[in-house]
User: What shape does this take?
Amino acid sequence: MELVEGTYTTKSINSPSSKKSMSALSPEHLAELIHRVAEDRDQSAYASLFKHFAPKVKAYGLRHLRADGQALELVQETMLLVWRKAHLYNGAKGGASTWIFTIMRNVSFDMLRKVKSNREDCLSGDIWPLIEGESGDQEDDALHSQLQTQLFSYIDLLPDLQKQVVQGVYIKQLTHQELADQLNVPLGTIKSRLRLGLQKLRTHLEVNDD
Assistant: This one.
């Protein structure tokens, strides 16, 4: 889409004015901007959303995708979906920030799945909603807490064996081998249960994205 790929560039993501604008938009204002995009395809409203969220999405991408090019791709793909899916936003289900960061998380998951690796825990960056925020940003702290609570509720819905492995790896911070030894099961069983658990978590996240 030319609107995203042509108009909004790396400069707009990194500019000081972009970072300054992040603290100037209230949750109510953000929701209103999304509605303007949905109802009127308002490009000025979209530009404000892009300037507000792009630095945060890029920071998340740098942390979890570990490459500047992929972080920028995450920004473009996330914000393109915000433009396309704005009509699906429902303020009764949650704030604008939560909705957009859920989209970001799912895009990140798809990108990580394309990376060929023997480490299943490379998927954790998308599943675990660690949102990078500026120090002392109360809105970011509240969002982080909300996403963590949401994720824990989804983990509780997993079958017991998969929940046990997901909690062991991501909450207790055990290695796959340590968990295999503790549960007295083969390492391959741990990897299989973890993969299935992450897939089910992703399904829950995608359902709540829409």
